[in-house]
Design goal:
globular; 318 residues; alpha/beta; Spore Coat Polysaccharide Biosynthesis Protein SpsA, Chain A
C-alpha cells in the first residue's frame, strides 16, 4: 500500500516536455521506495495525456482554454487516494537526489499532521533573486540524458532560494505555516472536508486555500502541528516556464460574461476587475483581488469553511 499520494496536475501552461521530466526525476529520487508512492494524474488538456489520468470535464472558452477547477477534479478522484499522506504537484516540480526516500522516512518516523517541504526557486549564482533568468535548461538536458552523476553535481552547485522568499529561510523542526510544498495526513484533510466547502473554485490553487484554512483554525485554537523538513530531507526545484495568464484573457472574460447570471455572486462578474486585468496592470495583483475580494474563490471558501466550523465542524477536529 503506498504511503504517499502525489496528486499531479497536467495543465496547459507547462511544456509537455516536463511531463516526462517529472516522472524521471521522481523515480530516480525514490529508488527502491517508488512502490511507496502513488501518483494520481489530473489532466486539464484537450488531448489525451501520455499516462493514465483523470481527464477533467471542465468547460473551455472559445480559444480552447479550460475553465479549470482543481478542487472539483480532486473530488472526482479522492476515492482513489491510497496514501497516508497527500501532496499536490505540477510537472515543473523536480525532486532532488534521494529526496523522495528521505521524505518518506521522515514522514513515517515523525507522523506530523502537516509537514512543509522545500520547493526552491532557481537563481543563477550572484544574481538577485527577482531577476527572471532561466537556469532550468541545464537540468532538463541532464535529466533527459539520465546522467545521475551529472544531476547530483548540478544539484550541489545550483543556487536556489525559498519559495516563500518574503518569509525567509525556516529552520527544520516545529514551525508555522508558510506557502510551500506540503504533505498533509489524508485523514486530517478528510476531517476538514477540505475540498468540499465551495463547489465553484475556478483558477484557484490548493496552496492559497491551505494558508487560509490554517489561519482560521489558529483563531479557534485548532491549528495542527506543522513541521518543516530539512533541505537535506525534502528538497525540490521549480523549473522555469512561461506564464501566459490564460485564465484572464478577453476570451475568458467573454465566457463569464455570456454566463453572467450564473456567476453574478462571484468576482468573475465584476467588470472593474476584468478592466484592470486587461489594462496591463501587474496580473498577479489583480488575480489576488479576484480571489480575495467579496465573491472571490478564497473568500467564498473561507465563508463556507467558517460556517461549517461553527455548526459542528469544530467537534470533528477536537
Amino acid at each position: 500500500m503506498p504511503f504517499l499520494t502525489i496528486i499531479l496536475t497536467l495543465d496547459v501552461e507547462k511544456p509537455a516536455e516536463y511531463d516526462g521530466l517529472f516522472f524521471k526525476a521522481l523515480k530516480a529520487s525514490a529508488g527502491d521506495a517508488i512502490d511507496d508512492v502513488q501518483v494520481l494524474v489530473l489532466s486539464q488538456r484537450e488531448h489525451p495525456p501520455p499516462c493514465e489520468a483523470y481527464v477533467s470535464n471542465c468547460p473551455r472558452n472559445r480559444a480552447g482554454y479550460p475553465v479549470w477547477d482543481v478542487f472539483a477534479d480532486v473530488r472526482e478522484v479522492w476515492d482513489r487516494v491510497e496514501g497516508e499522506y497527500v501532496t499536490f504537484s505540477h510537472t515543473e516540480f523536480c525532486w532532488g537526489p534521494d529526496r523522495v526516500q528521505t521524505t518518506l522516512e521522515a514522514l513515517s518516523n515523525g507522523l506530523p499532521v502537516l509537514a512543509l517541504g522545500n520547493l526552491r526557486r532557481l537563481s543563477p549564482a550572484g544574481k538577485h533573486r527577482r531577476i527572471g533568468v532561466d537556469v532550468s535548461s541545464d537540468v532538463v538536458r541532464i535529466i533527459n540524458d539520465g546522467d545521475e552523476a551529472a544531476f547530483r553535481k548540478w544539484w550541489d552547485s545550483v543556487t536556489t532560494y525559498p519559495w516563500a522568499f518574503w518569509v525567509g529561510e525556516q529552520t527544520p523542526g516545529k514551525t508555522y505555516w508558510a506557502e510551500d510544498m506540503f504533505f498533509a495526513r489524508r485523514d486530517w484533510l478528510e476531517k476538514l472536508r477540505f475540498f468540499e466547502h465551495c463547489h465553484r473554485m475556478p483558477f484557484q490553487d490548493v496552496y492559497d486555500v491551505m494558508g487560509v484554512a490554517i489561519e482560521t483554525l489558529k483563531r479557534h485554537e485548532l491549528e495542527p502541528s506543522i513541521y518543516r523538513l530539512g533541505r537535506n530531507v525534502c528538497e525540490l526545484v521549480h523549473l522555469s516556464h512561461n506564464k501566459t495568464w490564460g485564465a484572464y484573457t478577453p476570451a475568458m472574460r467573454e465566457w463569464f460574461t455570456e454566463r453572467r447570471e450564473q456567476w453574478a455572486d462571484t468576482t468573475f462578474a465584476r467588470d472593474d476587475l476584468w478592466d484592470r486585468m486587461l489594462s496591463g496592470i501587474n496580473p498577479g495583483t489583480v488575480v489576488r483581488e479576484f480571489r480575495r475580494a467579496p465573491g472571490g474563490t478564497i473568500t467564498n471558501w473561507h465563508s463556507e469553511f467558517s460556517g461549517w466550523l461553527q455548526n459542528g465542524g469544530m467537534k470533528c477536529l477536537k
